[in-house]
Amino acid sequence: MISASDLRAGMTFIQDGKLIKVLEASHHKPGKGNTVMRMKLRDVRTGSTYDTTFRPEEKFEKAMMETKAVQYLYSQDDVAIFMDLETYEQYEIPVSTIEAEMKYILENMEVKIQFYGDEVIGLTPPTTVVLKVAETQPSIKGATVTGSGKPATMETGLVVNVPDFIEEGEMLEINTQEGTYQKRANK
């Protein structure tokens, strides 16, 4: 059992027979009354998200997840195909359940998928990925790193804010936890 105050983003627990993933978690102390835990949660099986609050002492059953290293092969019809790197077994995951994560993944990239029993729950991309800038405004001569930046669309469709000197075709390192530009990738 795990208490609500110990739940963090990325953790999965069981509530009323449902598998729930924590998207955001924060302590909230109102002016009057007791501290509460504000949470943004997602029902793993249905994909629905909702906001709720819990008392910090409430207890939940922690879901025992298994993680496997797999390679993303391709997407076909609304399904993404992954291959286990040890057994070469293939897994199909509906793209709708991993839509946000797919913006960081290219074909043949290694990722980790989570299982609850035999059920595929989700995937975790690497902490940083290298993506190519597909579209952005022309660079500004004399632009500095401290400028406000501009939006850039990466080859996967992900849009990130980048410094003004970045040009189309450049390879950039992107942080997958925050969805932010880190630096130019080494060539």
From TrEMBL:
Source organism, top-level taxon: Bacteria
SUPFAM superfamilies the record matches: Nucleic acid-binding proteins, Translation proteins SH3-like domain
Major subcellular site: cytoplasm
Cellular localization per UniProt: Cytoplasm
UniProt domain Elongation factor P C-terminal: residue ranges: 129-184
Keywords: Cytoplasm, Elongation factor, Protein biosynthesis
InterPro entries the UniProt entry points to: Elong-fact-P_C, NA-bd_OB-fold, Rib_uL2_dom2, Transl_elong_fac_P/YeiP, Transl_elong_KOW-like, Transl_elong_P/YeiP_cen, Transl_elong_P/YeiP_CS, Transl_elongation_fac_P
Pathway: Protein biosynthesis; polypeptide chain elongation
All residue ranges annotated as the Translation elongation factor P/YeiP central domain in the record: 67-121
Molecular function terms from GO: translation elongation factor activity
Annotated family: Belongs to the elongation factor P family.
HAMAP family referenced in this protein's UniProt entry, alphabetically: EF_P
Record's function text: Involved in peptide bond synthesis. Stimulates efficient translation and peptide-bond synthesis on native or reconstituted 70S ribosomes in vitro. Probably functions indirectly by altering the affinity of the ribosome for aminoacyl-tRNA, thus increasing their reactivity as acceptors for peptidyl transferase.
Protein name (record): Elongation factor P
